[in-house]
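Handout for the seminar on molecular recognition.
Each group receives one record of this type.
Step one: identify the two inputs.
Step two: read the structure output and locate the region that could contact zinc ion.
Step three: write two sentences on what you found, then compare them with the reference statements printed after the record.
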Amino acid sequence: MILRIALPTPLHRLFDYRLPVDPPADPPAPGCRVRVPFGNRELIGLIVEHSEHSEMPLTKLKPVLEILDREPVLDPLLFDLGRWAARYYQHPIGDALSQLLPVLLRQGRAAEFAHATLWRASADASLERLSSSAHRQRELLQLLLDHPQGISTDAIRAEGGQPRLLTTLEEKGLAESFAHHPQPANAALTEQVLQEAPLPLHDEQAAAMQALQAATGFTPFLLYGVTGSGKTEIYLQAIERTLMAGRQALVLVPEIGLTPQTLARFRARFRVPVHVLHSNLSDRERLDTWLHARHGSARIVIGTRSAIFTPLKNPGLIIVDEEHDASFKQQDGFRYHARDLAVVRANREGIPIILGSATPALESLHNAAEGRYRLLRLSRRAGNAKPPRFELLDIRQQPLDAGLSQELMRRMHDHLGRGTQVMLFLNRRGFSPSLICDQCGSVVDCTRCDAHMTLHRSPPHLHCHHCDRQTPIPRACAQCGSTTLKPLGIGTERAEDALQRHFPDIPILRVDRDSTARKQSLERIMAQVHSGEPCILIGTQMLAKGHHFPRVTLVAILDADAGLFSADFRGMEKTAQLILQVAGRAGRADHPGEVLLQTLHAEHPMLQTLISSDYLTFAGQEMNLRRAGALPPFAHHALLRAEATRQGWAEQFLRELAAQTLQTRPLPPGVQTIGPFPSPMEKRGGLYRAQLLIAARSRGPLHALLAALIGQAQAHPQGRRVRWTVDVDPVDNY
Ligand code: ADP
Ligand code: ZN
Ligand code: ZN
């Protein structure tokens, strides 16, 4: 018997091993882990299939060193989903499958809950065997005798015992330690899922809920609801029904959408445990949550991208909140899209899925238009909240102080004077995005990237936001020696600076990756906002998502033009989404909200559509442009990216690859290759990058061509000095 094993290597293939000479009665099933020799290392791999034959001579096959599981760690459905995703994203199978597992399982640890070491009295222990003067030891032994199921050292200490004497008792044969494996509680009783009453639904919510309730089996819903319309309430009530049916719910949220507030709402509503998978968990906590989900004791699992691979004993519903968010797409290595995989998974599980957003991705709207998703709409805000009022602030020929116009500051004074809060959005952290020489005009660039160094004031240094390189601030210009270096452009630190000058009596709260780097700092800022006192929030897109600030009545976008003229064909879509998400923070409670967009292009059609109409109208216009340009969602894209230490190598590599591949097989109809071209930022982190775009009307020929290109790339003699990767359905940076 031969085992075909997926190993975490960059190779697009399985590896054959044989069972050890002394085989177990039954060979381990596919989905079990094994430890195998690989070159001069040992790797942990997953058995994919059993086979009778191998392309290798049998005498050359190495035996498996250790079988780690008796039961598969991946259930067949997830295992298949992983294999499907590896094929779809054209990623090496071993690396893809390993990413389905928590880190501790990748390292070979047992798929078991953390065990506790407990102490108990030995079978023949009795107090008579201790001298009557050994008070402490007698007390401790009595404690053990009182706890025949075992007691932890912490509990002993809590009861006044002295754990350090345990070894003395052990040496006398009176006490022993043992490993205790906690068994998770069984699924809670279905009738007791609620802790607080659900809100009575408004008309549109009720209609949406009715459609959800009528769904049986796989049904994908696109829940398009303006910010504050009560999407979360729909999620909560849909989950309630899932729990009542004895099933589990999986909720995916964007990386920075997982606010303590969101979590608090879930925990307040339900009596069942809500398990969270986020990036701050230890590997052990991650594994425990994974085990709880697999066991069925985790009834609700909320997590970011990789949570899509959480095993569920009894799944009933998948929700993807803010489904348009780019963080669902992994941007390196195994470049899967968690939203898209969620739809595939729901299909295989035969359960409904809700994709929710105030600004759905054009891909999702297209799927709804084609009848693949059912569109549910919430067009009004819930409760007493009114939609915010939009206004464009034309800043042409207006004097600005650190990006703030006179008119904006006047409006801020108005709102603050009425005792409410103001939020300013600027998607650029640091003091200024560049440092320029006043004499010769040269700008300080990163030596490793085609990018300027960002000036930071606290602490003072230059920082490249692309490769993380940090340097002291130079005293003189490297080109001309002049000492008059000046900050050029505005970042959040600089805006904060100006705000402190103009509003000396108002707390200024800056929210960006720098100001929140320390633990608890974001929580402290949020606590201050929720105190309700007047304040000014200034921040990056960390502010844009998920937050509910009932006292914020004015939201201003300092630079609404930032994405209007991007070379990325998705630039407009991303800009519109960001503007509406930020605007959605305004006036979410009883106080009406106002949204100001500072712009140099007040007549720009997209800005006009956004302020006078709604996202669907904007999306409809954008969709026409995409259709006319044969761009996604009306075409499918894949990128072959390459990078190398010398300029030109990557591009040349891709050119040869394309030429060789197309020599043996002509381009199928409806498929096009574009490039190779240098990437939009050619040099990054010291590497020169290039990309080849493949566009196709249908996926079949696209994937066939990609597979051929990958085959060529693996065999290419330059494959070693050029690093290349594949990105199917790319969303960024091309
Ligand atoms: P979204 O997720 O669409 O942004 P939320 O579900 O967070 O919207 O709802 C916004 C606010 O409206 C919340 O404070 C929520 O409690 C409230 N809300 C939602 N649904 C209702 C309802 N049916 N009646 C009253 N208030 C509601
Ligand atoms: Zn100079
Ligand atoms: Zn750099």
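Reference statements: The pocket of adenosine-5'-diphosphate (ligand 1) is lined by residues 199-202, 205, 225, 227-233, 382-383 (CB under 6 Å). The chain has 20 helices and 31 strands.
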